[in-house]
Amino acid sequence: MSLLAVExxxxxxxxxxxxxxxxxxxxxxxxxxxxxxxxxxxTTLLRAIAGAHKPATGRILFEDVxxxxxxxxxxxxxxxxxxxEGRRLFAxxxxxxxxxxxxxxxxxxxxxxxxxIEAFPMLAPRLNSRAANLSGGEQQATAIGRALMANPRxxxxxEVSLGLAPIAVEAVYRSLAALIASGTTIVLVExxxxxxxxxxxxxxxxLEGRIILQGRANDMTREQVTQAYxxxxxxxxxxx
Amino acid sequence: MNTDRRFIVERWTRLSAAASVTAAVVxxxxxxxxxxxxxxxxxxxxTLFIYLILAVMWNALxxxxxxxxxxxxxxxxxxxxxxxQLSYHGMSVYPxxxxxxxxxxxxxxxxxxxxxxxxxxxxxxxxxxxxxxxHLLVALDPIINGETGVSLxxxxxxxxxxxxxxxYWMTLAAMVVLLAAVFVLLRGRLGASxxxxxxxxxxxxxxxxxxxAAKRTIFFLAAFGCALAGSLWLATSISxxxxxxxxxxxxxxxxxxxxxxxxxxxxxxxxxGVIFFxxxxxxxxxxxxYLVGLGAVAIVFALFLPRGLWGSIxxxxxxxxxxVGYTLRLLRSDFYHGSHTAPPNDRLHDLTEPNDNVExx
Amino acid sequence: MTWVTQLLNGVLLGGYYALLACxxxxxFGVMRIINLAHGDLAILSACLVFLIADTTGISPFIALVAxxxxxxLVGWGLQxxxxxxxxxxxxxxxxxxxxxxxxxxxxxxxEYFGAxxxxxxxxxxxxxxxxxxxxSNVYVGSLAALIFALAVLLLGGLKLFLTYTPLGRAIRATAExxxxxxxxxxxxxxxxxxAAAIAVATAGLAGIFLAMRAVFTPFSGPExxxxxxxxxxIGGIGSLSGTLIxxxxxxxxxxxxxxxxPQGFLITGxxxxxxxxxxxxxxxxxxxxxxxxxxxxxxx
Lengths: 240, 361, 300
Fold this sequence. Notes:
The complex is a heterotrimer of chains A (about 240), B (about 350) and C (about 300).
Chain A: E1 2-13, E2 16-27, E3 31-36, H1 42-50, E4 57-62, E5 65-66, H2 72-78, E6 80-83, H3 95-103, H4 113-119, H5 136-148, E7 154-158, H6 166-181, E8 185-189, H7 193-199, E9 202-207, E10 210-216, H8 222-230
Parallel strand pairs in A: 3-8, 3-9, 6-7, 7-8
Antiparallel strand pairs in A: 1-2, 1-4, 4-5, 9-10
Helix pairs in contact in A: 3-5, 5-6
Chain B: E1 7-10, H1 14-31, H2 33-36, H3 39-64, H4 73-88, H5 93-115, H6 120-140, E2 150-151, H7 160-187, H8 189-199, H9 201-206, H10 211-237, E3 239-240, H11 242-245, H12 249-261, H13 268-283, H14 288-304, H15 308-317, E4 327-330, E5 357-360
Parallel strand pairs in B: 4-5
Antiparallel strand pairs in B: 1-4, 2-3
Helix pairs in contact in B: 3-7, 3-10, 3-12, 3-13, 4-5, 4-6, 4-10, 5-10, 7-10, 12-13, 12-14, 12-15
Chain C: H1 3-31, H2 38-56, H3 60-88, H4 93-113, E1 131-133, E2 139-141, H5 142-164, H6 166-176, H7 178-183, H8 188-213, H9 221-235, H10 240-260, H11 264-288, H12 291-297
Antiparallel strand pairs in C: 1-2
Helix pairs in contact in C: 1-5, 1-8, 1-9, 1-10, 2-3, 2-4, 2-8, 2-9, 3-4, 3-8, 5-6, 6-8, 9-10, 9-11, 10-11, 11-12
């Protein structure tokens, strides 16, 4: 049984089609890396899964329940949490308030403000600082922590390394590794192919709205993925 | 080398040419109306023209420049007020009406320095405050006698029939000139600037559109137009009471006419004005429920038919009667290559969406 | 009347304005809507209380307890059926629909109540006229003082509510970024409806007190709206404490202006409002150019 199943999803931005007929599944406990260049449709796909973007056609099934028509806030309560592109923290609220506001509607589970601080110790001295005053790495940590506060079964991460210093990226991926180890299912959008391949169990490459390459991370070479990323050649085993 | 052209850009379509000719014919007919019809008809037409002026001006401000003003009655009242002042100081009546409007229009320029820097909601009420202040200051003028008001007695120099005819022609001329001004402006550079501003003000500024100058031009035009409407109203009703001329009901009428007719279209306010005139003619005497009905209809249109009657027709059938925009005439049917799936059309249109006319041959 | 008394009266009047403006400011802060029917909703509330007091003889202070929840429901309904839809259609539509609503309310009330000026003062007995003597020359109206105290309590209470309660945090988050608020589980529609209920209920409270300390007609709404708006703008849009300050500045300006001329009450208020607006815009433009030094040192 797959935790998440996406079937023939089409999504538009106004007159521009961002997602074309995307179909894939994610099993519980897996980490799927979604790779692709800018404009490939990855963010739109993640937002559609989280309920923040209305698809034109297709279905999204979460734990075998059709959630296509379920609004975003209800999907969070069901267990899907998105760490949006650009962090999107509530800038006027403190770190603690950002976490608290997200913890209100989540499911019961191990994550609360204390455990989030344990996972991201750099936030401890910044608990009462306004989110607008944080560094990039601290903001990313807060954004991930905020998603975790809902104790999600499916965690969606959109470009968490974007705009961060290497040392901050390092810290983020260390905590990701811990999350994966604890059994959370993750779909991860990432431009840094090396990092993505490092943590993922499965990989999907998107180009112009379609998935052109899918498979187990171990079975793929870096060259295959790079070529798919740039759309140089349709790789073997391509699905679209 | 592929030289065959796939499209032609046109300004006039057959339909718009026919409509323009019709409009010209109607105008000639209207010009001789005082000789053809009795006094009541001429009076009614004069009132209709004033409503049309107000509708077109408010639409220019809100539909094209995106400035919702809840205070245009400021200029309506000031136009009449300055006309009275000029007349009382010895100027001949009809020139005074015109010059009064010009002065009121000129006042809009310093007002715009402050007002145009405000954002949408603040601008709306800010203009209302300006109207209230104008009302209070005018009522302080000893000539005006407070809320009792005065009459433009110089008009008594003319017989009722002459007055009626002169008012009619002056109003007709004002309406035609203002409509022409809006038409010319829209066809020209200002029209393109204004559409760009409506879509995305920041983006427009970044490509060199002089946003403030464009807004100020339209603000001035709308102020002058409303002021002229006010002095023309004075010519027809002869008496001036601050409360009537500076009242908020004028804005209510303008909003109703433009919303029902079609915000942001050229023909819309004209249609809305005619509809409003007819409704007032038949129901205006029913008292309070009339106003309640106006308000309710405005709400319904704003919520469910934001493009107004004409706007919806334009959207549905893709027609435009007067050649204000550009039309793309496709010469080849394979213009759309690649993906043939059509986008879903479930977006709620923003009120200020531009019109693009695409016609296939 | 001494100037000190006038000053005090102006400050207390400012308390009423703060109470009135609170809902307008709140609705704008959360939903970015300027409710042009705000004043008329306040008058609606006053009319309802008047109706109860006039027909049943119940004191307005008690009738208030019944009417405020009704006003809250009105706000909730307004948001749910009108404003929500308006918001989606663009930034101009809420202005147009709330304006239409204002016309409907005013004329509907006129149809039912007629044009007579009314007041709730006769129904609260001596309290409408009581005053406290502070010194031999300085008097303070007890009703005015009560209104001021209520305004401070309400604004303070709202601030605390927004800062320390889960619902308050949800409202703040939704006000900042409704899209992301949905991603963290907040039902934005419900939040908006609650905020609207609070906004309209506070407007209702203000309307009832207006009726107690002065007179009103079905057409008093627009004037109240303008006062509320001026108070909000003077104090700085988006700040609850600013609303109190703005109200006080407006109240003082008006009261002192009335000493000069009977019309001075309104005129001074409007002039001060425009002056503050102009000053704020000029300061903003100045800051954008690098301050005073920037203006003078940049090469032409």
